[in-house]
């Protein structure tokens, strides 16, 4: 643990304190109903949307008392991979409150993730301040609130970023094991596995030798959790792709060509078909998609092929639904974005000031909309 690492962790703690203060005041200033005389419970701001899905899975399982997709009003919980619920159930044996257990997971995982991100940035960039600057831009990014909530972003990054760091150092077995843990948490782990697989091939072709090729089998390990989960779902539903079909039923993730997805999202954003809250969300989806496309173009131009594959696969998965869903949250998983922005800010000092002036109010607004239950419109 170097002084630079400790500085990053101190920054992480300060931003967590800032977010908890925001959550505390949100439950007093923005009650669910007008005229109430008592604030919501302390953890109520974090009991939102996907956090409740994971809680229900961890507490009751995927198919409680024989319920399932054949049941009226089913919540399509099989859309969520089992890694996070399993860990949540384990932590709950020590931390009795489910929400507190989820927040603890995200807190610890977020610390691991931001530390690994800073180390990756220092490996990419020559400047001494690269790690700290990347952590600042990442922790103050518009959707940073989801790193603290009971969501999977922090846990996934706690596996994915150390996996990438291990792959950069040609420690293929460790990278494969960490990526395997990531695929148990999110399907995005498969995109990471593809990127690491390509990095392995490029390294082997560049002169890795016979010893490197002997590690090739490790690149197949990350497919094991998704395969096991598909087998489990097939045993209960008769459907090998039950998780994908649950996403289609609950979140409009049926396949559509990219241009149709863009058109439908654009209509939701500017066509007057949605309330202003939902329209704003669709506008954010479009903006995040443009950022992702620009990032892929830049990575291709710089011949960063593995990173380009990772982000491109993410964009394809998110950009081929009926309309875009969760693209802004996905930006948290695109570590080349935050490293690239850090590089720009180190070479153009004015950019950091401009970035923080623009992003700070947006980040605060997004945090408040989530913490007050207004995120989905």
Describe this structure in words.
This protein has 377 residues and is mostly helical. It has a domain at 3-29 and 43-216 and 348-372. It is 69% helix and 0% strand. It is built from 17 helices and no strands. The protein has helices at 3-29, 50-60, 83-92, 98-124, 130-139, 145-148, 153-168, 172-185, 188-213, 224-237, 242-251, 258-270, 276-301, 305-318, 327-330, 335-347, 349-371. Helix 4 (98-124) runs antiparallel to helix 5 (130-139). The chain is globular. The protein starts with a helix and ends in a 6-residue tail after the last helix. The mean pLDDT is 94. It is a multi-pass membrane protein.
End-to-end separation = 43 Å
Main sheet record: none
In what range is the share of β-strand residues?
under 5%
The general outline is globular
| Run of helices and strands | HHHHHHHHHHHHHHHHH
Secondary structure class reads mainly alpha
Low-confidence stretches: none
Mean pLDDT: 94
Counting DSSP H or I runs of 4 or more residues, the number of helices is 17
Helix content: 55-70%
Number of distinct beta strands? 0
Radius of gyration: 21 Å
